[in-house]
Structures are given as structure tokens and as C-alpha cells.
Design goal:
alpha/beta, globular, 12 helices
Amino acid sequence: MSASRDTSSRTESFEFSLAHLTALDLTPPELIMAASFAQYQFVGLRLIPVTAGGAAWSLWADKSMMAGTKARIADTGVGVLDVELVKLLPDTDVAEFLPCMEAATEIGARHILTQADDPEFDRAAENYARLCEMAAPFGLTCDIEFIPWINTRNLADARRLIDAARSDNCGLVIDTLHFARAGCNLMELRSCPPEWFHYVQLCDAPAQAPASVDGLIYAAREERLFPGDGELDIVGMLSELPCSVVLGIEIPAETLSFTASPEERARIARESTLNLFRRSGYPESRSLRRG
């Protein structure tokens, strides 16, 4: 077998998940169908809004939508990788997330995307530990995502939370955009236990960050780039993670959405990622530390 054929075979073996933010106007059944069209193995579903009044689908309260979601999962074979978004705020009552966990289990999800935006670390750590404890009987992990404009702003902050919780079902999500904008480095990834990493969120962006917080938020929520179209070291980040991580595609592209369907955007994102891997020789050209 030639080296090029071997690399192609290896990159094609990666598992992909279509994050809801990539096409937030789609209902869960519609997102599953788009993922199936674009040859994704999973989706990530937004069951709890990120901002007040934001788009989300409370499947536990909408039996028809739950039934339609389960039907599309059965029809397509596309699974649910994660549900979002659990945000631990100063006034959070962790018990309020129980219906979300029950719904996540009903649709076969594995992970809960979690953010902690609380200026008091001890309270945030206690709530995170309680969340993990509550999720454990459902077989769910609680995967912390750090974001530069919230209180858990970088990898060091996220690691501190995980170390404090000391739960077997902790997790750490690396979003390539937030990793770069938070000024994190690859050595920080290398020092983290590989069992923390279950999936990543991939996108690209210019090397130069927006100058304001509003600019950071807009770029993250509205205008990301496909892998290979920007200047982030996506391959370098992935080289410090286990090869088993699922590649979550989280690429809202408002401008492109005017001319390309969600299905087409999902297809382009997957193909762009695989093309980036082939051009870089990833992972064969790199000496991976992880198994």
C-alpha cells in the first residue's frame, strides 16, 4: 500500500460529530438528517440555551420532538455524542439539570458540555463536583469547556476545576478557537491525563484575534472558518490528544449560510478537515504521544 493511500485510509477512519451551533436553526431531527447526509457519525444537540432566549430544544418537555429525534437516530444510525449547555453560574441549582440528563440518556448521549462562569472558585468547584455526581448514574461525563470571556477562561482554570472535583466522569473539551484566543500552549495539553479528552470542537480562524470582547464573541458565535482556511495550529493541538477523540465540527458561518445549505456546510467542513490532515500528513507524519 502506498503512503498516500495509507494516509487517506487513516484520516477517513476518524469519527465526526456535527455540533448544533454549526446549524442552530435546525431542529434536532433536522440536524441528524444533515449529519447523515454529510457522513457524520454523531451530532451534538443544544437542549439548554446558552443565552437567555437563545435557541434550544428541551426534548424532555416536547414529547413530539423527542419522538422525532429518536426516530431519526434509528433511521440514520447517527448517534448523539453530547448535549449542551450546562452553565454553572453563581445562583445555579444543579438539580435543575436532572431533566436534561434524563433526556440525554433517552437519546443515547455520552457527554454533557459544561461551562463554569462563577467568580467564586470554591462554589464553582462544588457545583461541578455535584453535577458530575448526579450525572454518573446516567453514564454521562461532564466535559468542561473554557472560554476567554468567562470566569473559566483558559486551560489552567479548567484543569483546576477538574482537579478539585476528583470525579471519574470529569472531562475537558478543547475548542480550537478558544484554545488559541485564550493563549494556551501545547505543553499544557501534553500535561493533561488523556482520559479527560472525549471529543474536541474544531474550527479555524485568523491568527490575529479580534481586539474587543464583543469581537471575540461575534467571531465565535457567528463567523468561524473551516479547518485549513485559517491560521490556527489545529494539527498541533490534535497531536497532543488521544487519537480516539471524536472530531466535533462547530463552525457557525453566517455569511456562507445565505448561499449554502446546512447539509452542504457540514459536508464542506468534514472534507476541509480531512484535506487538512492529508496535506499535513496527520497523523502519520507526527510522533504522537497519545494512544
